[in-house]
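Checklist before submission:
- one chain only
- standard amino acids only
- sequence pasted in full

Submission:
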Amino acid sequence: MKYIQNDKILQLTEKTLIVGVDIAKHKQVARAQDYRSIQFGKVHTFLNSFEEFEGFIR
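Returned file contents:
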């Protein structure tokens, strides 16, 4: 078996920004962090609608 998890971890650099979004039926939660898992800003919550999402990405 070939394990590639370490190869993927080595791709992260100081220029890497990781954005995670937890998608749910009514409300989404998003956060951004750097390659060391240091969080940028606060966790952001937005409703499941185009208007809410569009406001989040601006």
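Reviewer check: Residues 5-57 form one domain.
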